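User: Last request for today: this protein with glutamine, please.
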Amino acid sequence: MTLVTNLGFPRIGARRELKRVLEAYWRGEASAAQLQEEARQLRLRHWQLQRQAGAQVLPSNDFSLYDHVLDAAFLFDAIPADYRRLADADPLAGYFALARGVQKDGVDLRALEMTKWFDTNYHYLVPELHAGQDFRLRDDKPVAEFLEARAAGFDARPVLLGPVSFLLLSKTVDGSDRLALLDRLLPVYAELLAKLKDAGAEWVQIDEPCLVLDLDEAAHAAYRRAYAALAQAARPKLLLATYFGALGENLDLAAGLQVEGLHVDLVRGKEQLDAVLQALPKPRVLSLGLIDGRNVWRSPLDNALILARYAAGSLGAERVWLAPSCSLLHVPVDLDSEKSLPADLHGWLAFAKQKIGELKVLADALDGEASAEAALAQSRRQLESRRQSPRVHKPEVAARLSALDEASARRQSPYDARRAVQSQALRLPAYPTTTIGSFPQTQPVREARAGNKSGKLSDADYEAFLEAETEKCVRFQEEIGIDVLVHGEFERNDMVEYFGEQLDGFAFTRQGWVQSYGSRCVKPPIIYGDVTRPAPITVRWSRYAQSLTQRPMKGMLTGPVTVLQWSFVRDDQERSRTCRQIALALRDEVTDLEAAGIGVIQIDEPAIREGLPLRRADWPAYLAWAVECFRIAASGVADRTQIHTHMCYSEFNDIIDAVAAMDADVISIETSRSRMELLDAFVQFRYPNEIGPGVYDIHSPRVPDTGEMVELLEKARAVLSPEQIWVNPDCGLKTRGWPEVRTALTAMVEAAKALRAAA
Ligand code: GLN
Ligand code: ZN
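Assistant: Here's the final one, the structure of the complex with glutamine:
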């Protein structure tokens, strides 16, 4: 019988139960025992659900109260010295201090750095290591959760983050080599594996996703050393799990490691199957990642079946297991709870539970069960309905895409010529001041939006409320002397959702939550069809705000790449094609804003960098279409219209050419935290257009004074020419309160004045 296995399940709960209890615990409203009990029930419910959906091999230790990389660091006692006292006295408090920082009873600890888990929208905490670090087993979470599953009648396969990936995902605080710690770490893995064996685990899934990255010789050597050492241990059999891409040139390395099974991603790395079958030594098991663990679509089961049959024919059926491409962490739990999606679209989707069901169908088909036929036929019908749906395919969009040419992605004149016209039109002072768009989303603003959504607040009253908020915001900016104003974005819930809701081709779920980090979840829109813009989106608010003031009002849009990155995207066409469609819809919005008298328009692209492919070799192609899409959106306007963009991060060195190629007239970036360090990239490259290096870190409640901002701007002035410099905060102000914003922006305007006076 073909085995249906799973690599990991969403932890947060179909109703975000984990989020609720975590936040109650942090507020002091739930006890540690209540938190642990809810977590236990979630694990149990998820094992039941996976079993019922058809999985025979269920993951354990895939659950985490916050993050699985932090779990590993904590388990191996990789705890920085400052946190140790707390972690020893109260492990749970120590764990959450690492995750979120604490400021209480004289303890003041920052959170560990957080970063993206490969190219997903999940974020992990980066373990902090140092040379000569000791590791030991601090607790027995993997064993305890295995036994918990067993006690409930489930035969689980514990999941561990592998030692080499663990080190490669960590950083050292002293600049020493992470991999030098391997020999200290391996005995702890061996000890843990022995404990799992004693507990009765037959297999352990050992995740080494770093095997799909570009690796140097040192990493290769570390892999060989690690798995040779673990081969000596009394341990369960190991399934080495790789995902998020093909093994590529690391295939021989992976196939040569001393483990009993290999999992490969056949969704992103479909083409690798033949090579893997060739390379895999006997009698190793191959786990086929056939179903997309990162997206929400039903799978083309016939295609998956071809691959599975092919692999079974080559290796023998008993050496082949079926699995999702990666952990299902990245998709919502259960499509059955979506009651308001259009029926056809509903039929095209599969969430975590449904994906396991698809694997079960494949297994039945491989086993020759007659019942599989009906399910396969059903899946075929759904795919066919999607392929032919007028909701998905719109001839006018296809026509517009094929009419795109080089000129569609080019402003009328080069930057120097635009600059001259714009400065005539805008008449801004030196060091012009502006903000990034949003102003505080206060409780009343959120309540009004919720009230309007639930029908308690009429549309007319809601509009009137938003107009009043916008006017207050405009008056405030005039009063303190900002040069280029914004309307405040009070009408927006989220920078992607707001646009998606008003574009055709996007759908929204009720419960389609996925974990972003810790208790934070997002509900990404689903882009299912060709994108069109039935009506203008932001023009009404920008026009209203401009009518209140003589100063330039900046229009605010979310850029095409960011909309794409933060959504579930179509799997029936290239990402680049979907992105071009969004770009065209936004281009219409940009030209409509211009026609409505808006002379400055900002197209935010905070997600350009995070869209970078995992492999360096794939970067140029991605950057080419990402830049092109931005330019399509931005290039429909006359030279006098000033296009801004905004990016809220600080690593530009390796993509600076692409950022420059976007050819925005002005770019604002996050620089205050790094004390303008990242401006280096802009200097070495001699960035040609204007730049607003952020002078106010909006992620912190701390308010810098004028002197501090002047100092930062002087650093910027040392490396950029004065005519290039804008003065603005690091990012939008929506998470801040009005008192801080008032003080900080007033100080910011003073800083700009000080610079002008000194010129
Ligand atoms: N315009 C958005 C805002 O000000 C930009 C947010 C972002 O870059 N993430 O909130
Ligand atoms: Zn930002």
